[in-house]
Predict the 3D structure of the following.
Amino acid sequence: MGIATSTLNLAQSKLHVAAPYLIEQTWADYTPEQHAIWAELVTRRMPQLREHACREYLDGFHQIGLREDKLPNLTEVSALLQPRTGWQSTPVSGFLPADAFFEMLAARMFPTTTWLRSRDSMEYTPEPDIFHDVFGHVPMHAHPVFANFLESYGKICAGLMARPDALERMGRLFWFTVEFGLIRQDGEIKVYGSGLISSHGECTRVLAGGCEVKDFDLDAVLNQEFQTSEMQPVLYAVESFDQIYEATKEAEKRLR
Ligand SMILES: [Fe+2]
């Protein structure tokens, strides 16, 4: 109890609106079957990702100590991540309201669900689980520019809470970068968005040319509507992660 409880208390003391959603991850409670599901999910994704994920994702995967055979212990992940970029993978009880979500991003704490999908929904879950959140998102947080971008995004959105129209547009920026972003590296399209990293079906479809890939353009992204529950008809490729960091700062100016 000691270490975990003090970690939770420390996190709670840094947050206001998000504090009630923080929980402890009781890692010892995961069953062998759950570790086996995690292993199956990761083993299924890695061959494609070794070839088609951006290099920052693959570096991050190892830097934060993710393993193919065991569910991640978030305290251990954060202990490796925090010295690199100041980010933590912080356990939460489930879906967060927008203000709590942005508050956590602004504090470099990524709200992380601890539940794992069951065997009958290996391909898709409507709400994020630990596979989507940790395998899909957290490796990118080890990259300094992406880390700065995501904190900056959280701070900007936290300041726009009274502006639903502006928040909707910022939501599109998140969707087409953090969730479904593509990047050009070594003359090829590589994936970094968590929705592509964690979904074999959607990633395979995108890599096979089943969706239109446009060059990232801030205005186009801010105006591009999307459906969360459907395959994406159009996605955007950046040239570098500096581009989304700069675009986020530019978006703040435009939406002010
Ligand atoms: Fe996500």
The longest helix spans residues 32-52. The domain at 2-255 is CATH 1.10.800.10 (Phenylalanine Hydroxylase). DSSP finds twelve helices and six strands in the chain. The mean pLDDT is 95.
